[in-house]
Amino acid sequence: LISGRLNPGSHQKVLMKTGLVLLIAGHLNFITGALVHGTVLRFVAAPRDAVSLQYVIANAASVAAALLTISCGISALMLSRYLAPAALKWALLALSACSSLGCLSCLLGLLVAIGLTLGNQGRALLAPCAVANVALAPVSRECPFDPTRVYSSTLSLWAVSLVLESMEIIFGIRCLLLTLELLRL
């Protein structure tokens, strides 16, 4: 520490570690969102159903926030290598602020989606299945997916996404604070 501030060597190490965490968490969250969309939500999405529309919007926003987090992680890694360019510092400041706010809004959207799913016992997830008995649905042609585990799988993937969104918020704010310090703001 030099007069209460980190020296440039420690900035580089902290930025590199933060960037790597953001890059990994962003990729994992992107994959989780893609799995939820590909296995369940593409069948459930109905423009007239408010609950399924909320599911799709929350999941799409989560995937978009993951892409923003990946961009933030790449910028942090680049800045850890080249501390001099002011434009890169400002870009990282903007990306980390947008990523943190985007992830926060996605976290809230996913919490609402989980609450709605728990509140209606997954009926919105099983709406495309026109079968009266869910146990017989896998052998039925009336259901576009296997509904036996869709409720628990979707909730599990959303829980993983919540954890990843939380990590992205924490490390995005850390990146934001590091960039503020680098810019001496």
Description:
The chain has one domain. The protein is 74% helix and 0% strand. It has four helices and no strands. The longest helix is centred in the N-terminal third of the chain and has 37 residues. About 4% of the residues have low confidence. One of its GO terms (cellular component) is membrane. Keywords: Membrane, Transmembrane, Transmembrane helix. Belongs to the TMEM54 family. This is TMM54 protein.
Which features does this protein show?
mainly alpha, elongated, transmembrane helix, Beta-casein-like, transmembrane, membrane, TMM54 protein
Q: N-to-C terminal Cα separation, in Å? A: 18 Å
Low-confidence stretches: 132-139
- The fraction of residues assigned to DSSP E strands is under 5%
H/E element sequence: HHHH
> Level of helix content?
over 70%
Shape: elongated
If you average the pLDDT, what whole number results? 82
The description of the largest β-sheet is: none
**What is the helix tally?**
4
SSE arrangement:
Blueprint: H1 8-44, H2 50-81, H3 86-119, H4 150-182
Provide a quick synopsis of the model.
The protein contains four helices and no strands.
